Amino acid sequence: MADLTQVKMLDNEDNIRTVSTTCVYVPPEKEWYRRFWPPWPRERRCLKNNIHTTKYSLLTFLPKNLFEQFHRIANIYFLIVVVLNYIPAVNVVYAESAVIPLIVVLGITAIKDGIEDLRRYYSDKDVNNRKCRIYDWKEQTYNKSQWKNVRLGDFLRVVCNEVIPADIVLLHSSEPEGICYVETANLDGETTLKVRHTVKDTSQSGIFLPEGMTGEIHCNQPSKTSDFSGYLEQQDGSRISINSANLLLRGCTLRNTEEVVGVVMYAGHETKAMLNNNGPRSKRSKLERDMNWEIFSCGIILLILCIGGAIGSSIWSSNYKEMPYFPFNENAVWEGFIRFWSMIVILQVIIPLSLYITMELIKVFQVYFISRDIDLYYSKGDKRITCKSLNLTEDLGQVQYIFSDKTGTLTENEMLFRCCSIGGISYPHGLNSQFAALESGLQTPDILTTSHQNEKTLLEFYLDEELLAKVGKLNMQPVPCVNDFMLTMTLCNSVVVSDHSFQAGELNLLQNSRSMYSSMISLRTTLQALNISLQNLQLRIQTNLQSTYHNIHSKVQNLQNTLQNFQSRLYNPISSSQDPEELCDNNSQDTFLQTTLPGTCQNYQSDSDSKMDCDSGAETDVPKSQTLQPAAVKCPAWPQTMLEQVEEIVGHCDLDSLVYEAESPDELALVNAARNYGYALLHRSQNKVVILTLYQGVVEYDVLQVLPFDSERKMMSVIVQEVGTSDIIMYSKGADSAILNKLNQSPSQGSDNTEAFCVDDGDTNDPTNATEHHLNLYAKLGLRTLCLAKKTFKLEEYHSWLTEHHKAEVSISDRERLMHQSYCRAETELELLGVTGIEDRLQDGVPQTIDSLRQAGIQIWMLTGDKKETAINIGYSSHILHRSTEVLTINAENEEDCFQSLAVHLNEMNLKNSLEDSAHSSWNNLDTLLTSVVSVTRPFIPLVGRQGRQPVNKGSSKAIVFEGSILNYCLKPKVKETFLSLIGKCDSVICCRATPLQKANLVKAVKKHFKAVSLAVGDGANDVSMIQVANVGVGLSGNEGQQAAQSSDFAMGRFMFLKKLLLVHGHWCYARLASILLYFYYKNLAFALLLFWYQLLNGFSGSTAVDSINLMGFNLIFTSVPIIVVGVLDQDLQSHSLLSETSVYSIGSQSRHYTRLKFWIIFVEALYHSLVCFFVPLLANYSGTVTLAEFGFYNNLSLLILVTLTLALQVQQWTPFHHLTIWGSLVLSFLFNFVYCSLQQLPKDIFHVHWVLQTLSAHTNFWAVLALATLIGIFPRLLVMALYRLLFSSPIYTCKLKEKENRSSRKIKESTILPETTSTI
Fold first, then answer.
1. Which of 1195, 1186, 1183 is closest to 1255 using CA atoms?
2. Exactly one of 154, 167, 405, 1023 is catalytic; which is it?
3. Does the annotation mark 405 as catalytic?
4. What pLDDT, on the 0 to 100 scale, is given for residue 1093?
5. What is the tens place of the pLDDT at every residue in 691-722?
6. DSSP state of 951
């Protein structure tokens, strides 16, 4: 006898899945009825939770891996060459020797792929064998089992700190009100806890019994999106809505909740985590794409040589048919056809097989050294830079455009509440001087670039005394609009209160701590004895210092009074338009307080807020941090009766111990600000919110509906009803573009006090206009702004909306659109309460980093979702914009207006540029004429010089600013070309109010149009699309989670690390790989041409003078290791030179290290060296007798020496590794051949080389020929290098000279200091 669950899956036209949880009582022999109904294929009926992410198995590894590797055309080419070697008519070398290089390359790649897949196998095994608790219907209890045994429809019990094994619908939670907390760090990297809710009316008190659950769950089919919608249909036909808030995803970790129970909806590869696991993305670097043209050129050269050899063979075959030692075919055409394939076998080295393996090894070592750079280590977050795409290191040295997010990327993403406007009245919270400067038209003090000398600065909070007086206190009602404003900050959010003390891993630590208890007891006894001794010593020291302290304190007090008098005279504000005391009238009303609760904080107020010289509009030295002194007014304390009520709710009266868990740092800043003003959030559940106010005590609100934030509406709302009242109120917060368009157009009631701060007289009676004015002021200061509003529902109006909303909730098809429409119907006729200003400070080093990157020739664009004014202010603060920058703003209502506006700006810019170019050209002509006159008259007029002349200014920098709505028009086909032409002429671009998709589309358009290497950097999930589209994606590990870092090619801790990553490591990687690539082409072309010249002597028969072993070893043994060492360790300039001389980076961004011209130059050099290595030995031994093997050693060894010296001349900085590998490889080639020639038993296909090199080395003529060939071959390169340095100015060579001078001066200083030090001693 057993109970079981019949699980039914139904896929119909609406793409709906149905899971039935009806318990059925059946005999044991009929347990096979537990099945999917109707019948499905086995893979669907037996859907388990086990996963497989491996690519291969033991049986499929070899064929599948080889199949993947032969997708490379180069591997197919060399396979054809190997096959040709086994054809007797074509074979010209030892057949097995041609197989070895291909086997090595394929073997190394297969080993690498196998190791990676083996790691995936062990990872899958570890995950599938994890333990979980599955409900057993026979025993009616939860039994431990493995993850892989979980089936669709199983009931799972998960306890605290366990990982969710499958996607489950939450039915029960041990927490009150049916909530639980999960951490999604394994999915998106976010460490902030998320709140999930049980399905309504399903959570049971006490032990949860699955037998009590009846009904069917209808939901959408598995998908990659985060959306989840459905409903639970009960036996009575009623439906309960289910959404993503009720779904616990596989991979999440349960936190701060004792246990939960849920039913499995998606298992195994149907879970959202597995559906979104697409594996690593494939990106190719610009150098790899450019390399294809050179490989194609090498193929053309190979084809020309083979055709030439075939034609030559046909001619020889027709002219020398009767010569016995030329075994040609009688048909000359057939002979030419056969020799064509023989020439392919001989000259196969033109296309380098080992190039790809060498590049991969070099990049692996480059990534290793980048990750080990201590300058790129973020100590605060304990994060070092990580690279997830090994094939993009060279792109770091070619970046031309950087697309950066703002929040969390340029800024800290640590929010601080700085000011607010309520009912048309601004409460500056200590920013009086900044607002006064804005009103006076002066340059605003930059509050965002304040250095973080003290980490506590980010937690500081200014308490405005005027606002504090209006929030109310015990037995005193607050101002109504202020009360609504504070309630909105407290209620309209997803912040939850967590008073749990345990976090991840702390339960295990608690269990293990018992074994340490006895040791701690003995340690405590020792510390108590030591503490008594320390107390006695402290008493004696305190007695001696007390008298000294009083004397010093009196002197310091006198000094402070003198300093205050001096400051009041020095910083006396003056204005031509108003009285200085009137300008800063609110200064005395600003108090400063750390983020603690009222009654437990220490108050401070500003000593002097306004330090502007308003006379003639000139800017004076405005301090970035204000002088603070203790305030005279204390914060109101929480009454004891209220604290007793708090103890009944949260179990204690210590409000400081409450921990707020927020998904957004903005919400956390607002809740903390409201708490400081006496509105403390005590408890939040799915249906209830409990707060504590100074004037009312503990207040409970029933949460009727939550309208969550989405990127389309750009706002969030919560509909609540205070317990004991009938009023239904909706509190909303969101972007100004969303809130202001939904306001009630009827005359606003406003607040009783309509006095506005810094508002024109005409606007003082209109709170909405005043609030909008304050909104713009806050944005100009670079603050993040949010508008707050409310709406009071009539009972009939709410029930009418709720009926339609419930229909949208239980809908599965098109649910998202219906829910959006329902939200929009509710969020109308709003009453504007006010606006908040939240500060997000710039990260350290951002302005300096942007300055350096711009000097390097990199254009930096900012793509953000914030307001235009906020984005522009951050642009100035971060130095994306400068005060001299000409800012163009694009505004349009439709596509035609956008096109006209862009065309006007483009024509004006073209006309201005042409005039500036003409003026610049005329100045240059005049400068040339004056230079000629001065050079002629200098012997007669020695005082004539050029000191008084300055170069003409080609105009200020230009920037363009537009919003995301304009970008939609700009990327239309009609407008796109004009738009891209305009932004191409600008130095900076700021796109604000942009969605993630718009960011990605802009990056894609710029990358495609300008054919430039782009880099996108961001820190949040909204930046992932942009990061994946760009050539190089950089993710910052910030407060918005790890989505960007996980989706990026490079992940690091701070924006300022981009400076060294690009200017130093990027330059090194690109310069090294470009040099190595050209060298690869050079040595392979030289070796192939050397083999081709021998065909002139053998009638193009396809034979070679170099034996098969040396043919194979040239690339694989003798020249491979030095290339890797140079590609990994070579440095043309030291890091400090690259950071100071940023213009050197432009060589890489303009791709001047690797060009088509350089390829053909090295082709000419390879041609010349092959001719030297072939004809110098030929002419030297022309009158003598030399065997074929001896002549081959002349050719091979002379070329080895020459290519080794050529590589040595390319080395920029010698290290012991360079000497060891370069000269060691040359010595190795001789030793190898000495040993090789001493062997007597060789394969029969290899011609006789026994004792050949030993015989040659005994004659001085051999060494003389090698030396002569080396000198003749290397002399042109030395001559060209000397002439180039003499006639042309190279930035790299100039910097190297500076480095040399610095080293020489340092040595001189050390030599002059050392004798003095010695004499002193």
1. 1186
2. 405
3. yes
4. 93
5. 988 878 889 999 999 998 877 788 899 999 99
6. P
